[in-house]
Amino acid sequence: MADRILNIEEILEQMRCCWKGDIAAAETVKRLFRARELFFSDAKIVMEQFNLSVGEFDALASLRLQGAPYEQTPSNICQANMVSSGGLTKVLNSLEKNGLINRRQCADDQRSRLVKLTDKGKKLIDEALEIVLTRHEKQLSDALSSDERETLNKLLMKLNQAGIR
Q1: Which PROSITE patterns match (predicted)?
Q2: What is the pTM assigned to this prediction?
Q3: Backbone angles phi, psi at 20, to 5 degrees
Q4: Residue 45: pLDDT above 70?
Q5: C-alpha–C-alpha distance, residues 129 and 119, integer Å
Q6: Cα–Cα distance between 54 and 19 in angstroms, integer?
Q7: Where is 73: in which H helix or E strand?
Q8: Which residues pair with 113 in a beta bridge?
Q9: How far is CA 25 from the centre of its chain?
Q10: Mean pLDDT of the chain
Q11: Cross-strand bridge partners of residue 116
Q12: Parallel, antiparallel or unpaired: strands 113-117 and 71-72
């Protein structure tokens, strides 16, 4: 018989049986992780349709959301996406090879290069983001009322402001 993936309720029930302490925090965190996984796995399907890795999608989205001229330093892209410079170099090499970005010397700092979206890269990330955001909007509106979403946003902002990293 194949192993079956347990749902959250089953995992929490197992925790209640074997853990004598309070599992309220574990319950909240498990639900947050599960929600993140649902949204991320759905977004990943779109990334795959556009032949993008997660790192490539994130780098392109960072450049696009920066606004015109859609240009940033690699350091800023690393900070925005919480990735190492080594990991980003691989991503940028791939994006440049595929004509989605250009890199040029930074006028202010000769040691750094600026990364800029090409027209092809902007078109691709605009299409991908439109699909991802539309799907996320549908998932949220199907599951929550506008009042519930507002409450959820306030609670998540409160958690983020409390320093959860």
Answers
A1: HTH_MARR_2
A2: 0.78
A3: -85, -15
A4: yes
A5: 15
A6: 36
A7: none
A8: 105
A9: 24
A10: 85
A11: 71, 102
A12: antiparallel
pLDDT of residue 122: 96
How many CA atoms are closer than 13 Å to the CA of 42, on its beta-carbon side?
17
Residues 92, 76: contact at Cβ < 8 Å? no
Query: Is-cis flag, bond preceding 69, omega within 30?
Result: yes
- Maximum C-alpha span of the chain: 62
CATH class, 29-141 region: mainly alpha
Candidates 57, 106, 113, 102; CA nearest to 81 is 57
How confident is the model over 89-140, as pLDDT tens digits?
899 999 999 999 999 887 776 677 889 999 999 999 999 999 999 999 999 9
- 12: pLDDT confidence band, cut at 50, 70 and 90? low
CB 125 within 8 A of CB 117: yes
